[in-house]
Amino acid sequence: MAVTRRQFMKVSAAGLAASSVGALGFMGAGEGLAAGVRPYRLEKATETRNTCPYCAVACGVLVYSSSEGTKDGKAKVIHIEGDSDNPINRGTLCARGAASLGFANSPNRLQYPMHRKPGSDKFERVSWDFAMERIAKLAKEDRDKNFITKNRDGVTVNRWLTTGFFAGSSCSNEAGYLTYKAIRSTGILALEDQARI
Amino acid sequence: MVPPGSRQVLSSSPENPASAFGENILGAAAEGERIRLPDLSTVFQRRAARLLALAPGHDLEGFLRLIAALVTVQHEALEGLPPGSLPGTAEITKARLVQRAPLDPSIWSRDESWRVALTRILETIELEVLPDSARAAREALLQADQASLESLADRFLGGDVATGEAAQAVFVAAALQVAWTRMAALLDAGDLAGETESGECPACGSPAVSGLVSPGGTKFGHRHLHCSLCATSWRYTRVRCVHCGSTDKISFRNLAGTAYLRAECCEVCQGYSKVFYLEKARALEPLADDLASLGLDVLVGEEGFSRVPNPFVLGMMERPEN
Protein backbone atom coordinates (compact mmCIF):
# COMPACT_ATOMS: atom_id res chain seq x y z
CA MET A 1 0.00 0.00 0.00
CA ALA A 2 1.66 3.17 -1.16
CA VAL A 3 0.18 6.39 0.14
CA THR A 4 0.82 10.01 -0.52
CA ARG A 5 0.94 12.91 1.87
CA ARG A 6 -1.55 14.69 -0.40
CA GLN A 7 -4.05 11.94 -1.12
CA PHE A 8 -7.30 11.40 0.77
CA MET A 9 -7.10 8.68 3.39
CA LYS A 10 -9.64 7.25 5.76
CA VAL A 11 -8.44 6.69 9.34
CA SER A 12 -9.35 3.43 11.05
CA ALA A 13 -8.12 1.27 13.93
CA ALA A 14 -6.78 -1.38 11.53
CA GLY A 15 -5.21 1.32 9.41
CA LEU A 16 -3.36 2.71 12.41
CA ALA A 17 -1.63 -0.63 13.02
CA ALA A 18 -0.54 -0.76 9.37
CA SER A 19 0.70 2.82 9.55
CA SER A 20 3.89 4.44 10.69
CA VAL A 21 2.38 4.27 14.18
CA GLY A 22 2.44 0.49 13.87
CA ALA A 23 5.66 0.48 11.89
CA LEU A 24 7.45 2.38 14.65
CA GLY A 25 6.46 -0.41 17.07
CA PHE A 26 3.10 0.65 18.50
CA MET A 27 1.08 -2.21 17.04
CA GLY A 28 -1.86 -2.36 19.46
CA ALA A 29 -2.19 1.40 19.83
CA GLY A 30 -4.80 1.75 17.08
CA GLU A 31 -7.24 -0.66 18.73
CA GLY A 32 -6.65 0.98 22.09
CA LEU A 33 -7.36 4.40 20.62
CA ALA A 34 -10.50 3.22 18.82
CA ALA A 35 -11.78 1.46 21.94
CA GLY A 36 -11.05 4.55 24.03
CA VAL A 37 -12.99 6.85 21.72
CA ARG A 38 -15.90 4.45 21.10
CA PRO A 39 -17.97 5.53 24.15
CA TYR A 40 -18.02 9.10 22.86
CA ARG A 41 -20.86 10.11 20.64
CA LEU A 42 -20.20 12.19 17.54
CA GLU A 43 -22.20 15.41 17.58
CA LYS A 44 -23.13 17.03 14.30
CA ALA A 45 -23.73 20.71 13.67
CA THR A 46 -23.83 22.97 10.66
CA GLU A 47 -22.57 26.50 10.18
CA THR A 48 -24.30 28.63 7.57
CA ARG A 49 -23.39 32.06 6.23
CA ASN A 50 -26.27 34.50 6.29
CA THR A 51 -27.09 38.19 6.58
CA CYS A 52 -28.20 39.84 9.79
CA PRO A 53 -31.93 40.67 9.54
CA TYR A 54 -31.91 43.93 11.48
CA CYS A 55 -30.58 46.94 9.62
CA ALA A 56 -29.37 48.07 6.23
CA VAL A 57 -25.68 47.56 7.06
CA ALA A 58 -26.38 43.86 6.34
CA CYS A 59 -23.60 42.35 8.47
CA GLY A 60 -22.49 38.82 7.68
CA VAL A 61 -23.36 36.24 10.33
CA LEU A 62 -22.51 32.58 10.89
CA VAL A 63 -25.57 30.64 12.03
CA TYR A 64 -24.85 27.41 13.92
CA SER A 65 -27.60 24.85 13.95
CA SER A 66 -27.90 21.34 15.27
CA SER A 67 -30.57 18.71 15.78
CA GLU A 68 -28.88 17.40 18.96
CA GLY A 69 -31.34 17.25 21.82
CA THR A 70 -34.38 18.50 19.92
CA LYS A 71 -37.50 16.42 20.43
CA ASP A 72 -38.66 16.34 16.81
CA GLY A 73 -35.18 15.81 15.33
CA LYS A 74 -35.43 19.09 13.42
CA ALA A 75 -32.35 21.27 13.41
CA LYS A 76 -32.48 24.29 15.70
CA VAL A 77 -30.35 27.43 15.69
CA ILE A 78 -27.92 27.13 18.63
CA HIS A 79 -25.54 30.04 18.16
CA ILE A 80 -25.10 33.13 16.00
CA GLU A 81 -21.88 35.10 15.65
CA GLY A 82 -20.36 37.66 13.29
CA ASP A 83 -18.68 36.28 10.19
CA SER A 84 -14.95 37.03 10.47
CA ASP A 85 -14.50 36.61 6.73
CA ASN A 86 -17.16 39.19 5.87
CA PRO A 87 -15.51 42.41 4.66
CA ILE A 88 -18.27 44.61 6.11
CA ASN A 89 -18.40 43.67 9.76
CA ARG A 90 -15.22 41.54 10.05
CA GLY A 91 -16.62 39.28 12.71
CA THR A 92 -18.24 41.98 14.81
CA LEU A 93 -21.94 42.48 15.52
CA CYS A 94 -23.88 45.19 17.32
CA ALA A 95 -25.82 44.38 20.48
CA ARG A 96 -28.99 43.57 18.53
CA GLY A 97 -27.20 41.39 15.98
CA ALA A 98 -25.30 39.58 18.71
CA ALA A 99 -28.60 38.83 20.43
CA SER A 100 -30.33 37.58 17.29
CA LEU A 101 -30.25 33.99 18.61
CA GLY A 102 -33.06 35.04 20.97
CA PHE A 103 -34.93 36.50 18.01
CA ALA A 104 -34.54 33.31 15.93
CA ASN A 105 -35.79 31.04 18.70
CA SER A 106 -38.28 33.40 20.34
CA PRO A 107 -41.67 31.85 21.15
CA ASN A 108 -43.18 35.27 20.31
CA ARG A 109 -41.71 35.30 16.84
CA LEU A 110 -44.26 35.93 14.09
CA GLN A 111 -44.27 32.83 11.91
CA TYR A 112 -47.47 33.23 9.89
CA PRO A 113 -49.97 36.00 9.01
CA MET A 114 -52.18 37.12 11.89
CA HIS A 115 -55.39 39.11 11.66
CA ARG A 116 -57.26 41.21 14.24
CA LYS A 117 -60.83 41.64 13.04
CA PRO A 118 -62.48 45.04 13.43
CA GLY A 119 -63.87 45.20 16.96
CA SER A 120 -61.95 42.13 18.12
CA ASP A 121 -59.34 42.28 20.88
CA LYS A 122 -57.12 39.39 19.73
CA PHE A 123 -55.12 38.25 16.72
CA GLU A 124 -56.04 35.05 14.90
CA ARG A 125 -53.99 32.99 12.50
CA VAL A 126 -55.08 33.36 8.86
CA SER A 127 -53.93 31.92 5.56
CA TRP A 128 -51.53 33.75 3.24
CA ASP A 129 -54.28 33.90 0.61
CA PHE A 130 -56.63 35.63 3.04
CA ALA A 131 -53.93 38.10 4.07
CA MET A 132 -52.93 38.95 0.51
CA GLU A 133 -56.52 39.38 -0.62
CA ARG A 134 -57.42 41.53 2.37
CA ILE A 135 -54.40 43.80 1.88
CA ALA A 136 -55.06 44.08 -1.86
CA LYS A 137 -58.72 44.88 -1.33
CA LEU A 138 -58.10 47.59 1.27
CA ALA A 139 -55.23 49.06 -0.76
CA LYS A 140 -57.40 49.20 -3.88
CA GLU A 141 -60.23 50.89 -1.98
CA ASP A 142 -57.84 53.48 -0.56
CA ARG A 143 -56.16 54.08 -3.91
CA ASP A 144 -59.42 54.48 -5.78
CA LYS A 145 -60.58 57.03 -3.22
CA ASN A 146 -57.38 59.10 -2.90
CA PHE A 147 -55.45 58.76 -6.17
CA ILE A 148 -54.35 62.13 -7.57
CA THR A 149 -53.98 62.22 -11.33
CA LYS A 150 -53.33 65.95 -11.83
CA ASN A 151 -52.03 68.69 -9.55
CA ARG A 152 -53.70 72.09 -9.30
CA ASP A 153 -51.75 73.38 -12.31
CA GLY A 154 -53.17 70.57 -14.46
CA VAL A 155 -49.88 68.66 -14.70
CA THR A 156 -50.24 64.85 -14.67
CA VAL A 157 -48.69 63.48 -11.43
CA ASN A 158 -50.44 60.12 -10.72
CA ARG A 159 -49.75 60.14 -6.95
CA TRP A 160 -51.08 57.91 -4.22
CA LEU A 161 -50.13 59.70 -1.03
CA THR A 162 -52.38 58.08 1.56
CA THR A 163 -50.45 54.79 1.70
CA GLY A 164 -46.77 54.08 2.29
CA PHE A 165 -44.67 50.96 1.76
CA PHE A 166 -42.06 49.60 4.15
CA ALA A 167 -39.77 46.95 2.55
CA GLY A 168 -36.94 44.81 3.94
CA SER A 169 -33.66 46.20 5.23
CA SER A 170 -31.47 43.37 3.99
CA CYS A 171 -32.75 43.14 0.43
CA SER A 172 -30.41 42.30 -2.41
CA ASN A 173 -29.92 44.71 -5.29
CA GLU A 174 -32.43 42.74 -7.33
CA ALA A 175 -35.04 42.70 -4.58
CA GLY A 176 -34.55 46.45 -4.15
CA TYR A 177 -35.05 46.99 -7.90
CA LEU A 178 -38.23 44.91 -7.99
CA THR A 179 -39.62 46.61 -4.89
CA TYR A 180 -39.06 50.04 -6.42
CA LYS A 181 -40.58 49.09 -9.79
CA ALA A 182 -43.62 47.37 -8.31
CA ILE A 183 -44.48 49.96 -5.65
CA ARG A 184 -43.69 53.11 -7.65
CA SER A 185 -45.94 51.81 -10.44
CA THR A 186 -48.91 52.11 -8.05
CA GLY A 187 -48.13 55.80 -7.45
CA ILE A 188 -46.86 55.37 -3.88
CA LEU A 189 -44.21 57.94 -2.99
CA ALA A 190 -43.59 56.97 0.65
CA LEU A 191 -41.40 53.97 -0.16
CA GLU A 192 -38.62 52.75 2.10
CA ASP A 193 -36.24 49.94 1.21
CA GLN A 194 -32.57 48.95 1.06
CA ALA A 195 -32.10 50.73 -2.28
CA ARG A 196 -32.06 54.13 -0.57
CA ILE A 197 -28.49 53.66 0.78
CA MET B 1 -15.44 88.38 16.66
CA VAL B 2 -13.27 85.89 14.79
CA PRO B 3 -9.45 86.00 15.01
CA PRO B 4 -7.63 86.95 11.79
CA GLY B 5 -7.26 84.03 9.37
CA SER B 6 -9.81 81.89 11.17
CA ARG B 7 -12.69 82.94 8.99
CA GLN B 8 -11.22 81.06 6.05
CA VAL B 9 -10.63 77.93 8.13
CA LEU B 10 -14.16 78.01 9.42
CA SER B 11 -15.83 78.70 6.09
CA SER B 12 -13.90 76.42 3.71
CA SER B 13 -13.43 72.82 4.74
CA PRO B 14 -10.49 70.79 3.48
CA GLU B 15 -11.26 68.56 0.52
CA ASN B 16 -11.06 65.38 2.56
CA PRO B 17 -11.50 66.32 6.20
CA ALA B 18 -10.38 62.95 7.49
CA SER B 19 -7.04 62.89 5.68
CA ALA B 20 -6.40 66.61 6.28
CA PHE B 21 -6.52 66.02 10.01
CA GLY B 22 -4.06 63.12 9.88
CA GLU B 23 -6.68 60.43 10.06
CA ASN B 24 -7.46 57.85 7.50
CA ILE B 25 -10.76 56.25 8.31
CA LEU B 26 -11.32 54.36 5.09
CA GLY B 27 -9.71 50.94 5.05
CA ALA B 28 -7.99 51.43 8.38
CA ALA B 29 -9.97 48.76 10.23
CA ALA B 30 -7.88 46.23 12.07
CA GLU B 31 -7.07 43.12 10.09
CA GLY B 32 -5.27 39.89 11.01
CA GLU B 33 -2.21 38.70 9.16
CA ARG B 34 -2.86 36.75 5.98
CA ILE B 35 0.34 34.75 6.25
CA ARG B 36 2.36 33.94 9.36
CA LEU B 37 5.82 32.59 8.79
CA PRO B 38 7.21 30.16 11.38
CA ASP B 39 9.27 31.44 14.30
CA LEU B 40 12.36 29.23 14.32
CA SER B 41 13.18 29.87 17.96
CA THR B 42 9.87 28.51 19.23
CA VAL B 43 8.09 26.41 16.61
CA PHE B 44 9.58 23.00 17.47
CA GLN B 45 9.98 23.71 21.19
CA ARG B 46 6.31 24.61 21.57
CA ARG B 47 5.32 21.53 19.60
CA ALA B 48 7.49 19.24 21.75
CA ALA B 49 6.20 20.77 24.97
CA ARG B 50 2.61 20.35 23.80
CA LEU B 51 3.21 16.70 22.82
CA LEU B 52 4.70 15.99 26.25
CA ALA B 53 1.74 17.66 27.92
CA LEU B 54 -0.70 15.56 25.87
CA ALA B 55 1.10 12.23 26.26
CA PRO B 56 0.43 11.13 29.88
CA GLY B 57 -2.46 8.66 29.97
CA HIS B 58 -3.15 8.97 26.24
CA ASP B 59 -3.99 5.79 24.30
CA LEU B 60 -1.09 6.66 21.99
CA GLU B 61 1.23 7.69 24.86
CA GLY B 62 4.29 5.81 23.54
CA PHE B 63 3.82 7.21 20.06
CA LEU B 64 3.33 10.77 21.31
CA ARG B 65 6.45 10.49 23.49
CA LEU B 66 8.42 9.27 20.49
CA ILE B 67 7.24 12.18 18.35
CA ALA B 68 7.96 14.57 21.25
CA ALA B 69 11.55 13.27 21.38
CA LEU B 70 11.76 13.61 17.61
CA VAL B 71 10.50 17.21 17.67
CA THR B 72 12.91 18.04 20.50
CA VAL B 73 15.87 16.95 18.37
CA GLN B 74 14.34 18.77 15.38
CA HIS B 75 14.79 21.95 17.39
CA GLU B 76 18.38 21.04 18.23
CA ALA B 77 19.09 20.16 14.60
CA LEU B 78 18.13 23.69 13.53
CA GLU B 79 21.35 24.95 15.06
CA GLY B 80 24.45 23.89 13.19
CA LEU B 81 22.79 23.46 9.81
CA PRO B 82 25.09 24.47 6.95
CA PRO B 83 24.16 27.74 5.24
CA GLY B 84 21.44 26.73 2.81
CA SER B 85 20.02 28.18 -0.36
CA LEU B 86 16.84 30.21 -0.70
CA PRO B 87 14.76 31.17 -3.73
CA GLY B 88 15.68 34.69 -4.86
CA THR B 89 13.51 37.29 -6.57
CA ALA B 90 13.90 35.57 -9.94
CA GLU B 91 12.82 32.16 -8.59
CA ILE B 92 9.88 33.67 -6.70
CA THR B 93 8.70 35.49 -9.81
CA LYS B 94 9.06 32.34 -11.86
CA ALA B 95 7.13 30.31 -9.28
CA ARG B 96 4.34 32.88 -9.36
CA LEU B 97 4.21 32.65 -13.16
CA VAL B 98 3.66 28.90 -13.03
CA GLN B 99 1.27 29.39 -10.08
CA ARG B 100 3.33 27.37 -7.65
CA ALA B 101 4.61 28.16 -4.19
CA PRO B 102 8.30 29.22 -4.25
CA LEU B 103 9.37 26.32 -2.00
CA ASP B 104 7.17 23.71 -3.72
CA PRO B 105 9.33 20.56 -3.68
CA SER B 106 8.47 19.91 -7.34
CA ILE B 107 10.08 23.16 -8.54
CA TRP B 108 12.58 23.95 -5.77
CA SER B 109 15.56 21.58 -5.60
CA ARG B 110 16.60 21.08 -1.99
CA ASP B 111 20.18 21.41 -0.81
CA GLU B 112 22.03 18.96 1.42
CA SER B 113 21.06 20.65 4.70
CA TRP B 114 18.12 18.27 5.23
CA ARG B 115 20.58 15.33 5.31
CA VAL B 116 22.67 17.13 7.92
CA ALA B 117 19.47 17.57 9.92
CA LEU B 118 18.60 13.89 9.46
CA THR B 119 22.00 12.74 10.74
CA ARG B 120 21.71 15.04 13.74
CA ILE B 121 18.17 13.83 14.48
CA LEU B 122 19.16 10.16 14.24
CA GLU B 123 22.30 10.62 16.35
CA THR B 124 20.80 12.68 19.13
CA ILE B 125 17.27 11.25 19.53
CA GLU B 126 16.61 9.76 22.94
CA LEU B 127 16.82 5.98 22.46
CA GLU B 128 14.67 4.95 25.44
CA VAL B 129 11.47 6.11 23.75
CA LEU B 130 12.16 4.12 20.56
CA PRO B 131 10.63 0.64 20.29
CA ASP B 132 12.70 -2.05 18.52
CA SER B 133 11.23 -1.45 15.09
CA ALA B 134 11.84 2.29 15.38
CA ARG B 135 15.45 1.54 16.37
CA ALA B 136 15.78 -0.74 13.34
CA ALA B 137 14.50 2.05 11.08
CA ARG B 138 16.98 4.46 12.67
CA GLU B 139 19.85 1.99 12.12
CA ALA B 140 18.81 1.45 8.51
CA LEU B 141 18.80 5.19 7.87
CA LEU B 142 22.19 5.64 9.51
CA GLN B 143 23.61 2.95 7.21
CA ALA B 144 21.88 4.23 4.08
CA ASP B 145 23.94 5.99 1.42
CA GLN B 146 23.29 9.46 0.09
CA ALA B 147 21.52 8.33 -3.10
CA SER B 148 18.99 6.13 -1.34
CA LEU B 149 18.28 8.85 1.24
CA GLU B 150 17.64 11.36 -1.53
CA SER B 151 15.38 8.89 -3.28
CA LEU B 152 13.45 8.24 -0.06
CA ALA B 153 13.02 11.99 0.43
CA ASP B 154 11.77 12.30 -3.15
CA ARG B 155 9.27 9.53 -2.55
CA PHE B 156 8.04 11.16 0.65
CA LEU B 157 7.69 14.61 -0.89
CA GLY B 158 6.20 13.27 -4.11
CA GLY B 159 3.89 11.04 -2.11
CA ASP B 160 4.87 7.50 -2.89
CA VAL B 161 6.02 5.88 0.36
CA ALA B 162 5.77 2.08 0.48
CA THR B 163 4.41 0.40 3.62
CA GLY B 164 7.84 -1.07 4.44
CA GLU B 165 9.32 2.42 4.57
CA ALA B 166 6.64 3.91 6.84
CA ALA B 167 8.88 3.99 9.93
CA GLN B 168 11.86 5.45 8.06
CA ALA B 169 9.59 8.02 6.42
CA VAL B 170 8.83 9.49 9.86
CA PHE B 171 12.52 10.38 10.42
CA VAL B 172 12.88 11.62 6.84
CA ALA B 173 9.74 13.75 7.22
CA ALA B 174 11.15 15.25 10.43
CA ALA B 175 14.45 16.17 8.71
CA LEU B 176 12.66 17.68 5.72
CA GLN B 177 10.45 19.69 8.09
CA VAL B 178 13.59 21.16 9.67
CA ALA B 179 15.01 22.20 6.29
CA TRP B 180 11.72 23.57 4.93
CA THR B 181 10.77 25.36 8.14
CA ARG B 182 14.13 27.16 8.14
CA MET B 183 13.68 28.21 4.51
CA ALA B 184 10.10 29.35 5.08
CA ALA B 185 11.10 31.41 8.12
CA LEU B 186 13.58 33.36 5.97
CA LEU B 187 11.09 34.23 3.23
CA ASP B 188 9.25 37.53 3.03
CA ALA B 189 5.54 37.09 3.74
CA GLY B 190 4.79 39.85 1.21
CA ASP B 191 6.16 37.64 -1.59
CA LEU B 192 3.75 34.84 -0.77
CA ALA B 193 0.38 36.57 -0.69
CA GLY B 194 -1.42 35.33 -3.77
CA GLU B 195 -4.63 36.75 -5.16
CA THR B 196 -6.64 33.62 -4.60
CA GLU B 197 -7.11 31.73 -1.40
CA SER B 198 -5.82 28.18 -1.48
CA GLY B 199 -5.95 25.10 0.72
CA GLU B 200 -2.27 24.56 -0.02
CA CYS B 201 0.62 26.28 1.72
CA PRO B 202 1.61 29.57 0.02
CA ALA B 203 5.26 28.95 0.92
CA CYS B 204 5.75 25.30 -0.07
CA GLY B 205 2.50 24.05 -1.61
CA SER B 206 2.04 21.29 0.95
CA PRO B 207 -1.33 20.35 2.43
CA ALA B 208 -2.38 21.70 5.81
CA VAL B 209 -2.22 19.56 8.92
CA SER B 210 -5.12 21.36 10.64
CA GLY B 211 -6.68 24.79 11.09
CA LEU B 212 -6.80 27.11 14.09
CA VAL B 213 -9.56 29.65 14.65
CA SER B 214 -8.36 32.58 16.73
CA PRO B 215 -10.69 34.04 19.36
CA GLY B 216 -13.51 36.09 17.90
CA GLY B 217 -15.23 39.09 19.43
CA THR B 218 -12.87 42.04 19.51
CA LYS B 219 -10.16 39.90 17.92
CA PHE B 220 -10.33 38.71 14.35
CA GLY B 221 -11.76 35.19 14.55
CA HIS B 222 -10.09 34.06 11.33
CA ARG B 223 -9.07 30.52 10.55
CA HIS B 224 -5.42 29.91 9.78
CA LEU B 225 -4.35 26.65 8.18
CA HIS B 226 -1.00 25.23 9.27
CA CYS B 227 1.42 23.68 6.82
CA SER B 228 2.41 20.07 7.41
CA LEU B 229 5.91 20.61 6.04
CA CYS B 230 7.15 24.17 6.66
CA ALA B 231 4.97 25.30 9.62
CA THR B 232 3.78 28.41 7.75
CA SER B 233 0.18 29.34 8.46
CA TRP B 234 -2.18 31.18 6.19
CA ARG B 235 -5.69 32.54 6.41
CA TYR B 236 -8.53 30.56 4.89
CA THR B 237 -12.24 31.36 4.89
CA ARG B 238 -14.16 29.53 7.60
CA VAL B 239 -16.92 27.09 6.64
CA ARG B 240 -15.22 26.42 3.32
CA CYS B 241 -13.84 23.03 2.33
CA VAL B 242 -10.04 23.05 2.52
CA HIS B 243 -9.77 20.42 -0.20
CA CYS B 244 -12.28 21.40 -2.89
CA GLY B 245 -13.14 24.99 -1.94
CA SER B 246 -16.87 24.27 -1.76
CA THR B 247 -19.02 26.27 0.64
CA ASP B 248 -22.12 24.09 0.15
CA LYS B 249 -23.05 21.28 2.48
CA ILE B 250 -20.38 21.81 5.12
CA SER B 251 -21.14 20.16 8.42
CA PHE B 252 -19.13 19.85 11.62
CA ARG B 253 -18.58 16.82 13.81
CA ASN B 254 -17.15 16.82 17.29
CA LEU B 255 -16.91 14.38 20.16
CA ALA B 256 -19.77 15.00 22.58
CA GLY B 257 -18.48 17.33 25.28
CA THR B 258 -15.46 18.75 23.44
CA ALA B 259 -15.86 22.24 22.07
CA TYR B 260 -12.27 23.05 21.09
CA LEU B 261 -12.03 20.69 18.14
CA ARG B 262 -14.39 19.95 15.26
CA ALA B 263 -14.00 18.11 11.99
CA GLU B 264 -15.19 20.27 9.08
CA CYS B 265 -16.75 17.74 6.72
CA CYS B 266 -17.60 18.46 3.08
CA GLU B 267 -20.38 16.40 1.51
CA VAL B 268 -19.24 17.46 -1.95
CA CYS B 269 -15.76 15.85 -1.92
CA GLN B 270 -16.25 13.64 1.16
CA GLY B 271 -13.16 15.20 2.70
CA TYR B 272 -12.68 16.77 6.11
CA SER B 273 -10.14 18.79 8.01
CA LYS B 274 -9.76 19.55 11.69
CA VAL B 275 -10.55 22.97 13.09
CA PHE B 276 -9.26 23.92 16.55
CA TYR B 277 -10.81 26.80 18.48
CA LEU B 278 -8.23 28.72 20.50
CA GLU B 279 -11.01 30.41 22.43
CA LYS B 280 -11.97 27.11 24.04
CA ALA B 281 -8.47 25.81 24.83
CA ARG B 282 -5.59 28.23 24.70
CA ALA B 283 -2.68 25.79 24.68
CA LEU B 284 -3.00 24.28 21.23
CA GLU B 285 -0.40 23.32 18.67
CA PRO B 286 -1.73 22.37 15.24
CA LEU B 287 0.47 19.35 14.51
CA ALA B 288 0.70 18.01 18.08
CA ASP B 289 -3.02 18.30 18.74
CA ASP B 290 -3.79 16.69 15.40
CA LEU B 291 -1.81 13.61 16.49
CA ALA B 292 -3.38 13.60 19.93
CA SER B 293 -6.89 13.72 18.47
CA LEU B 294 -6.63 10.75 16.10
CA GLY B 295 -9.57 9.23 17.98
CA LEU B 296 -11.86 11.77 16.34
CA ASP B 297 -10.45 10.72 12.95
CA VAL B 298 -11.47 7.12 13.64
CA LEU B 299 -15.10 8.10 14.30
CA VAL B 300 -15.27 10.59 11.43
CA GLY B 301 -13.69 7.98 9.14
CA GLU B 302 -16.49 5.59 10.08
CA GLU B 303 -18.97 8.20 8.85
CA GLY B 304 -17.32 7.97 5.44
CA PHE B 305 -15.08 11.05 5.38
CA SER B 306 -11.40 11.13 4.45
CA ARG B 307 -8.53 13.47 5.22
CA VAL B 308 -5.03 14.31 4.09
CA PRO B 309 -2.66 12.51 6.46
CA ASN B 310 -0.40 14.00 9.09
CA PRO B 311 3.22 13.50 7.90
CA PHE B 312 3.97 11.42 11.02
CA VAL B 313 1.11 8.99 10.46
CA LEU B 314 1.79 8.43 6.82
CA GLY B 315 0.94 5.11 5.28
CA MET B 316 -1.62 4.27 7.90
CA MET B 317 -5.00 4.87 6.47
CA GLU B 318 -7.37 2.89 4.36
CA ARG B 319 -7.94 4.24 0.92
CA PRO B 320 -11.46 5.52 0.45
CA GLU B 321 -13.57 3.39 -1.87
CA ASN B 322 -13.23 5.11 -5.21
CATH homology-level superfamily of the largest domain in chain A = ADC-like domains
Helix content of chain B: 25-40%
Total discrete domains of chain B: 2
Number of helices of chain A: 7
In the CATH hierarchy, what is the architecture of the largest domain in chain B at level 2?
Answer: Alpha-Beta Complex
General description of the model:
The complex is a heterodimer of chains A (197) and B (322). Chain A is elongated and about 100 Å long. The model of chain A has no long low-confidence stretch (mean pLDDT 88). Chain A is α+β, with helices and mostly antiparallel strands. Chain A has four domains: 33 residues, no CATH class; 59 residues, N-terminal domain of TfIIb (Single Sheet), CATH 2.20.25; 27 residues, no CATH class; 50 residues, no CATH class. Chain A has seven helices and eight strands, in the order H-H-H-E-E-E-H-H-E-E-H-E-E-H-E. In chain A, helix 7 links the parallel strand 7 and strand 8. In chain A, 29% of the residues lie in helices and 24% in strands. With 322 residues, chain B is α+β, with helices and mostly antiparallel strands. Chain B folds into two domains: 153 residues, Alpha-Beta Complex (FdhE-like fold), CATH 3.90.1670; 123 residues, FdhE-like fold (Alpha-Beta Complex), CATH 3.90.1670. Helix content of chain B is 39%, strand content 11%. Chain B is built from twelve helices and seven strands. In chain B, strands 1-4-3-2-7-6-5 form a seven-stranded mixed β-sheet. In chain B, a hairpin with a 5-residue loop joins strand 5 and strand 6. In chain B, helix 3 packs parallel to helix 11 and helix 6 packs across helix 9. Chain B is globular and about 50 Å long. Chain B starts with 5 loop residues before the first helix and ends in a 20-residue tail after the last helix. About 3% of the residues of chain B have low confidence. Classes of the chains: A alpha+beta (197), B alpha+beta (322). The interface between A and B is large, with 51 and 79 residues.
